[in-house]
Structures are given as structure tokens and as C-alpha cells.
Specification:
Blueprint: H1 2-33, H2 42-56, H3 61-86, H4 93-116, E1 132-135, E2 138-141, H5 142-164, H6 166-176, H7 178-183, H8 188-210, H9 220-235, H10 240-260, H11 265-284, H12 292-295, H13 301-313, H14 337-344, H15 350-355, H16 364-387, H17 390-415, H18 424-439, H19 445-468, H20 473-492, H21 494-497, E3 503-504, H22 521-543, H23 546-556, H24 558-563, H25 568-594, E4 596-597, H26 604-617, H27 622-639, H28 647-661, H29 665-675, H30 678-683
Helix pairs in contact: 1-5, 1-8, 1-9, 1-10, 2-3, 2-4, 2-8, 2-9, 3-8, 4-28, 5-6, 9-10, 9-11, 10-11, 11-20, 16-22, 17-22, 17-25, 17-26, 17-27, 18-19, 18-25, 19-20, 19-25, 22-25, 23-25, 26-27, 27-28
Protein name: Branched-chain amino acid ABC transporter permease
Transmembrane segments: 15-41, 61-87, 99-118, 142-162, 190-214, 226-252, 264-283, 371-388, 395-418, 447-468, 524-543, 571-594, 606-633, 645-663
Biased composition (Low complexity): 324-337
Length: 700
């Protein structure tokens, strides 16, 4: 009984917290399941309501009512504006929406701080609620009990609207069949706007009512968004009741779980989120994915790799090795006829094709045109130390580290068709491996790079099977969960990571054996550039080989690849491992450049920046990803230095501009300017979003 008494108050707090998350998550679920918008600015809508309610609160019932009305209306207006912003992206999938709404969240967060200040605002509730009541022998805040009642009433009202009114019928119809809805005289676009406005209103109302529980302040929007995403994933999109139960479970983990098992609580939520998504992807995969268990499974991967390498050296070209061959005269999907011909011509196998720059004609002018952008970029990077001051040179080194991370995202998003928001996890593994090696006295750069790459590759090998079976938005969510689990581990494993304080004070890196530790910014930059050149060269060598073409074929025509006998799962797993190793190298370079490491350097925001850099460059452009990373770092650290306190605003504008103005990235601009070939345009096509798990509807 003493145990129950000790945890009674946290348990009731968990119910209140869970109901708060339910109101927010109901709006997020409504926007995603009905309007099809993956809204990463939903936490900002909550913050709008919270700040507005706190500003208008004066300790009276009238102040609470006015704050509730104003906060709800402001968030609803923001939701309607979000509808207008996302409608042009309806045909571009959830990735573009995620980037746009994340950029809007950065802008909105900066504007809220500018208007209301950076300090947490006090919230004054009516005097009758600003007291405690006796609940089963325990004193408990009256406002929280009142909030529980209001949240239950709001849930009941929302269920009634969706099930018993014409408005609810129109909303459900818009999720099931928008064209049929249009034939009844209703405008799907108006329903779309109304749904997002209603989702914003729910978030705003939750912000006003929840401000006394989770006060408005820095980081509140991000916390609410992440927890709401967990609730939506656990509860699904088909039932408000399952969402309610999931929200209460999350609330209990956040309150009761922290008091009962503080060491495990940070992992439970995102581990559960990842597990649910993985299990769901097993049953909602397209029918062609069923071959995973056949053609991809069972064989020893080491023996398979040995046979593949042996087959390549024997001149089999891009054959499937230990699987059924592609029919004679046919190229695998995504591989051009010239490559297939190279594979069939015995002595003119894959290696001569690769040495000719991936073109059958192999003419010098073509090779020069292909190499020109890379050579120009390399020349500019080499000249930077003679043109820039020490601080800007250090920023350029940081941009190279982020660029390697962005290239790893390009491999997964553009080539493998696996859009990721968790690539900072292997990036963090490489970074912390390097920092701990340096702290232990292993300061030789090549050793740090190799160990970081191996550690990150092993991490990607372990997490890869959870990622490669999913598609579309589910990949985004699974990788987000993996990234958040890595962040939780970083904060918990203080002996290895330093926790929230990070790591600092380790010896500088030596470029080579027997050298001195690099201290001068130019030396460190030249080291980072050398590592980046080697890593990018190896990446390009692989991506422009038949293996890279097979990977593109897997993305564009997975069913045909499987029907041809190709082990698609193995291709994707090897791409995931290779991208993870490259991210680990980027993490190692970042530690060498910065000489310190904190959780913020490997958090969700960096993952979004890397994804944006890949989108800016073009889905399959390695050079474009590097340029995108440089643009992001220069905006965040260099341009923002002339306007202090507005770095997030500038980055948000960059997100929005990139999504609208560069639908195919810089590579797409170059393709339209006449660089020729349908291959470039096709390669830059965004991965399809055919995840039936996220195509649900909101129904009770």
C-alpha cells in the first residue's frame, strides 16, 4: 500500500499529461490521416496557444475564457495558412511536406520568441483552481483535475462531431474518396483547409489549457511534437479511442515511469514507437515486398558477398550472382542498355564501363563535362584557406562534416528510396567513437576515421533490417525513432558521452603517424578536406558502378527487380551500411574540426539539416548535397552572425525556399538547362510514397 501511495500522484499526473497529449495528437492525427499532411510544425501551433493563453491570463475566469478563445483562434488561423502552404505540394509526397512544415516551425518558433521573449511565461489560473483538493487521501492540484475533466469532454465532443454530424461525414469522406466527395457538391479543398484549421484549433486549445501544466518556453514545442508523434504512431490513425489509450500510456511513462524506472523511461517511448512501426510494416508492405522472405533471406551474407565479388571479377557485369539471372538481352530496371551491353560483352565488363565514366561512348568531352562541376568545387575548396579568416575556415570544415552526412542521406533517400530522419545516429556513433579514441590517446587521424566508419557501419547493420522493409513515410518515422533512441542513449551514457554536457578537452588529431596534433584552423581544414575528397571519391565510384545502377533500379521498379531474381533486401541493407559508414566518417571529421562534442551536434535538428542539404542538391546529386550543406552552415553560422538571435528564422526561410523553388534540387536546374538525358531527370524524381500504413483515415 505504501508503494501505491508513493506513486499515486505521479500516476494521476500521467493521466493529465496523457490527456493533454491526446488533444494535441488528435489534431496531428486529423491532419495526417485525413488531410494527408505530415505536420512537423504542430508543436508550434501548440506553442501559439500556450503563449497567447499565458499572455492573456490574469487569474480570472474571464481571462481564462478570453485566452482560450484567442489562443484557439490564432492556432486555427495558422492551421488554415498551413493548408494554403501545403496544397501545392500535394503531389510531391510527405517528404516535401515534412521539410516545409519543419521550416515553418523554425520560423514560427523564432517569431514567438521575438514577440513573447525567451523566458518561460508565468500562467495565472482562476483562484478557485489555484489550490489543492483531497483525492483519496492525497493533496492534488485542483486545476489538473479540472483539466482532466475538460479533456474528456473535448474528446467526447470530437468523437460526436466526427460520427454524428455532416461535417464529420465530409471529413471521413475526404479521407476515403475525395472525388466522390466532390460529386456531392462539397469542395475537397475547403474540407482540407477546414481539417487543418480544426487540427490547429485543437493544438491551440491544448496549449492554452495545458500552459499551467507545461508552461510555454524554449523547447516546449519540440517536446510536445515528439511525444505527439509517438502517440499517433502507437494509437494509429483509425480510431480516436486507441489514440486516447496510447496518449495516457505515454503520459504515464513520462511521469510514473520516470519515478519508477528513471534509467529506462527515456528509451521506452521511442523503442515502442519503432517496434510498432516495424511490426506494422510487416503487414502493410506492398504485395511485391513479400519476396523479402524468399530471395533475400537465409543465405550467409559473408558467403554471398564473396560470391558477388568473385562474379564481378569474372566479368559478370551487373548479374545477380547467386540469384536467378536477368533474361538475356534485358537490362535490370534502372540500368541502361549500354550498361547491360557492357555486362554481356565478356572482356568489356563493368570495369571498362566504369573507367569510361559510366557512358558507353567514353568520349573525352563527355567525361570532362561530367567531371567539371566536381573539379570546380574541389578547386574552390582548396583555395579557401588563402581567402578566408580563421573563423570562416572552421565553418568550412564543419560544412564538410555536414556535407558527408548529407551525402549519406542522399544515398538512402535518392538512390535507395529510403527517406531518413535518423542518419544522425551513425553520425553520432562515429563522432563519439573518435572523441573517446582521442581521449584514450589514439589521436592518429586515419585510425580515428577507420574506427568511426566501422563502428557506424556496425550500428547500421544492426538497425538496417528495421528500416529496409518499410517504405515511404514509415521509413521517416522509424528512422526518427532510431535517432531519438540514440539521443536518449547519449544523455544516459554519461561515462561515454558526457551526457548533456558533452565531451571537450581531448587531444587534437594528428594528420598522420608521427606528426603533431593539428591546432591551426588551416591544417584542420586541409585534413577535413582530404578525408572528404577520399570519402566522396569512393562514394562516387560505387554509385556510378553497376551496383549504384542496381540500387536506382530497386528504387524505381522494385517489383521488376524482385521478379528478375535480384536480392533487393540485400541491396538496400548494403546501401544502409555504406551510408552509415559514410555518416560515421562525417562525425569523426566534425569532432576533429570542432574539438568538442555535444548532444545538439547530433540531434534531430541536424538530421533535418542533412535531409534539406540532400534535397537542395537533388535526390541523387553528391556534389549538390555538399553545396547544400555549405549553404546551410553559412546561413546558420555566418549570415546569422550579422543578425544575432535569428538563425532559426533564416534557416526556416531556407527550408521553405528550397522546397518551393528547388523541387528537383540544383541537379534538376542543371538538367533543365540542357545537360541532357532523361536519366538525370528520372534520377532526381522524389521517392514515391506508397506506404499504406499511413494512408489511413480518422474514424472512431
Amino acid at each position: 500500500m505504501n508503494i501505491l501511495d508513493a506513486h499515486f500522484v505521479p500516476a494521476v499526473d500521467g493521466v493529465a499529461y496523457g490527456l493533454l497529449l491526446f488533444v494535441v495528437a488528435a489534431g496531428l492525427s486529423l491532419a495526417f490521416g485525413t488531410a494527408g499532411v505530415l505536420n512537423l510544425s504542430h508543436g508550434t501551433l501548440y506553442a501559439i496557444g500556450a503563449y497567447t493563453g499565458a499572455e492573456l491570463s490574469d487569474g480570472t475566469w474571464g481571462g481564462l475564457a478570453v485566452g482560450l478563445a484567442a489562443g484557439t483562434a490564432a492556432a486555427a488561423a495558422a492551421g488554415a495558412g498551413l493548408s494554403a502552404a501545403t496544397i501545392p505540394l500535394a503531389r510531391r509526397g510527405h517528404l516535401a511536406q515534412a521539410l516545409l512544415t519543419f521550416g515553418l516551425a523554425l520560423i514560427g518558433g523564432n517569431l514567438l520568441i521575438e514577440f513573447f521573449g525567451a523566458d518561460e511565461l508565468p500562467v495565472r489560473v482562476p483562484e478557485a483552481l489555484d489550490s489543492s483538493v483531497t483525492l483519496l487521501g492525497h493533496r492534488y492540484p485542483a486545476y489538473r483535475l479540472c483539466f482532466i475533466l475538460m479533456a474528456v469532454l473535448l474528446a467526447a465532443f470530437g468523437t460526436w462531431v466526427l460520427t454524428r454530424t455532416r461535417v464529420g461525414a465530409a471529413v471521413r469522406a475526404s479521407a476515403d474518396d475525395p472525388q466522390m466527395l466532390a460529386t456531392t457538391g462539397h469542395s475537397p479543398r475547403a474540407v482540407h483547409t477546414g481539417v487543418l484549421a480544426a487540427a490547429g484549433a485543437l493544438a491551440g486549445a491544448a496549449g492554452v489549457l495545458g500552459a499551467p501544466i507545461i508552461g510555454p518556453g524554449a523547447g516546449t514545442a519540440d517536446t510536445v511534437l515528439m511525444l505527439s508523434l509517438v502517440v499517433v504512431v502507437l494509437g494509429g490513425l483509425r480510431s480516436l479511442w486507441t489514440t486516447l489509450f496510447a496518449a495516457i500510456a505515454v503520459g504515464e511513462v513520462q511521469t510514473l515511469g520516470v519515478s519508477v524506472a528513471p534509467d529506462w523511461a527515456p528509451y521506452l517511448l521511442f523503442a515502442a514507437m519503432a517496434a510498432v512501426l516495424i511490426l506494422r510494416s510487416q503487414f502493410t508492405e506492398p504485395a511485391t515486398s513479400g519476396a523479402h522472405g524468399g530471395g533475400d533471406g537465409g543465405a550467409d551474407p559473408v558467403e554471398w558477398l564473396r560470391r558477388r565479388l568473385s562474379g564481378s571479377f569474372k566479368g559478370r557485369g551487373s548479374g545477380a550472382g547467386d540469384t536467378a539471372p536477368v533474361p538475356s538481352g534485358a537490362a535490370p530496371p534502372g540500368v541502361g542498355a549500354d550498361k547491360a551491353e557492357a555486362g554481356r560483352s565478356g572482356g568489356r565488363g563493368a570495369l571498362p564501363w566504369l573507367l569510361r565514366g559510366g557512358r558507353a561512348d567514353g568520349d573525352l568531352a563527355s567525361r570532362v563535362r561530367q567531371a567539371a562541376p566536381l573539379l570546380i568545387l574541389l578547386g574552390v575548396l582548396i583555395a579557401l584557406p588563402t581567402l578566408l579568416d580563421a573563423y570562416t575556415i572552421s565553418l568550412a570544415g564543419s560544412a564538410l562534416a555536414l556535407g558527408l552526412l548529407a551525402v549519406s542521406v542522399t544515398i538512402l533517400t535518392g538512390y535507395a528510396g529510403l527517406p531518413t530522419l535518423g542518419q544522425t545516429a551513425p553520425f553520432a556513433v562515429g563522432a563519439y567513437a573518435t572523441a573517446n579514441l582521442a581521449d584514450a590517446g589514439w589521436t592518429v587521424g586515419p585510425v580515428q576515421i577507420v574506427v568511426a566508419a566501422i563502428a557506424a557501419a556496425l550500428f547500421s547493420l544492426v538497425t538496417g533490417p528495421a528500416v529496409i522493409r518499410a517504405r515511404g513515410t514509415t521509413v521517416l518515422m522509424i528512422t526518427l525513432a532510431i535517432g531519438e533512441l540514440a539521443s536518449a542513449a547519449i544523455n544516459q551514457l554519461k561515462s561515454v558521452t558526457g551526457g548533456a554536457d558533452g565531451l571537450v578537452g581531448f587531444p587534437p588529431t594528428q594528420a598522420l603517424w608521427g606528426g603533431e596534433g593539428m591546432v591551426d584552423e588551416s591544417e584542420v581544414y586541409n585534413y577535413a578536406l582530404a578525408v572528404a575528397v577520399v570519402a566522396v571519391a569512393v562514394t562516387l565510384l560505387v554509385l556510378r558502378s553497376p551496383a549504384g545502377k542496381l540500387l536506382i533500379g530497386t528504387r524505381n521498379a522494385e517489383a521488376r527487380m524482385r521478379a528478375s531474381g535480384h536480392p533487393v533486401g540485400r541491396y538496400l541493407l548494403m546501401a544502409h551500411i555504406g551510408a552509415g559508414a559514410l555518416a560515421g566518417v562525417g562525425g569523426s571529421v566534425m569532432v576533429t574540426v570542432q574539438q568538442y562534442l555535444s548532444p545538439a551536434d547530433v540531434g534531430f535538428e541536424i538530421a533535418a539539416f542533412a535531409l534539406l542539404a540532400a534535397v537542395i542538391g537533388g535526390n541523387t546529386s553528391v556534389i549538390g548535397a555538399l553545396i547544400g550543406a555549405g549553404l546551410i552552415v553559412s546561413t546558420r553560422d555566418w549570415v546569422a552572425s550579422s543578425w544575432p538571435g535569428h538563425g532559426h528564422l533564416l534557416l526556416g526561410v531556407l527550408f521553405v525556399a528550397a522546397v518551393y523553388l528547388l523541387p528537383r534540387g540544383l541537379a534538376g536546374l542543371r538538367a533543365r538547362s540542357g545537360s541532357g538525358g532523361r536519366g538525370t531527370a528520372e534520377a532526381d524524381r522524389p521517392p514515391s510514397d506508397h506506404d499504406s500504413a499511413t494512408a489511413g483515415k480518422v474514424a472512431p
